[in-house]
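User: My instructor asked us to take a sequence, write out its structure as tokens, and then describe one feature of it. I'm not sure where to start. Here is the sequence I was given:
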Amino acid sequence: MGALVTLHPPIGSPHTGVPWVVTIGSLGDREDWDPVVCGPYEREHAIALARAVVADDDLMAVVEPMFPLDSADAIRAEIGAVRAAAENAEQPGEELLAEQGIGGPPPPTPGRSEVRDGWRRIATRLSG
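Assistant: Let's start with the prediction itself. The structure tokens for your sequence are:
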């Protein structure tokens, strides 16, 4: 059984609507290969796909938001916002959740057409 690590943004977080990526690698030092990075996906699709892949194998999946920022200044502004939020103890942050030994029924794994529909929605949001 594998492990899944992901962020759980608070309700209303803008991070929920951005594209998400999945990085899958070896669990521990058992194997020597480069991790596979996949995406972008909608958050629910990313989590379901990651769970399906690691459920029956000794793999680790990290599911995280991808910030489609269009300039170095935009990246600096995002870094500043994250730093400021980390310094503000009163503001709830994102919760990092690790699921070890994933058990129970996984969420439905999206099919190819559902993932492709998600890609179209992501493209529309990014270009709109």
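For the description part of your assignment, you could build on this observation: DSSP finds three helices and five strands in the chain. Try explaining in your own words what that tells you about the chain.
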